[in-house]
Amino acid sequence: MNEKSSEIDQTVLQRAPEKDAKDVADIVSASILLQIRFTDRLKEADPNVTATQWAMLNLLTNHGPLRPFHIARKLGISRQHTFQATRKLQSYGYIASTSEDNSRAVTLTLTDDGKKLHHAVAKLFDAAAGELNVTLPKANVRPTKVFLLHLTRTLSDADPGDDAERLPSAIE
């Protein structure tokens, strides 16, 4: 995230009205439920793909070929976790790796099957996105995104071993 958007995010967060602990707990609970629902939908497309693997496919779809280091940094997960997820996605035929002449550095790309899976999962979420467009006022979109990213990072800092909460950083 660049400096300017970080300043905007802080401004949005600082303007948040007073809230009680129950409201915040309800938001955290709703976020957990959202992750469960996301995982359920993801399993409809492919029962083997995890949320982290989906985030990797999403990054590769939106940002083109990437090195594993860049994926790890963008998702906020360890290189080891990225390597494990990469091996799984390669075994499913969703990504391929290439390396330049005599280089240990590899670049990951989506295969045609990976593109098809990404499209199938994205299609599952189209209806939900359409509903959000109807029910979420435009003025609330940015503050909602900022708050969810802030919540995600807060939860990630509380439990660095669990990368599932880091998914929203993949949409930045």
From TrEMBL:
<dbReference type="InterPro" id="IPR036388">
    <property type="entry name" value="WH-like_DNA-bd_sf"/>
</dbReference>
<protein>
    <submittedName>
        <fullName>MarR family transcriptional regulator</fullName>
    </submittedName>
</protein>
<feature type="domain" description="HTH marR-type">
    <location>
        <begin position="43"/>
        <end position="141"/>
    </location>
</feature>
<dbReference type="InterPro" id="IPR036390">
    <property type="entry name" value="WH_DNA-bd_sf"/>
</dbReference>
<dbReference type="InterPro" id="IPR039422">
    <property type="entry name" value="MarR/SlyA-like"/>
</dbReference>
<dbReference type="Pfam" id="PF01047">
    <property type="entry name" value="MarR"/>
</dbReference>
<dbReference type="InterPro" id="IPR000835">
    <property type="entry name" value="HTH_MarR-typ"/>
</dbReference>
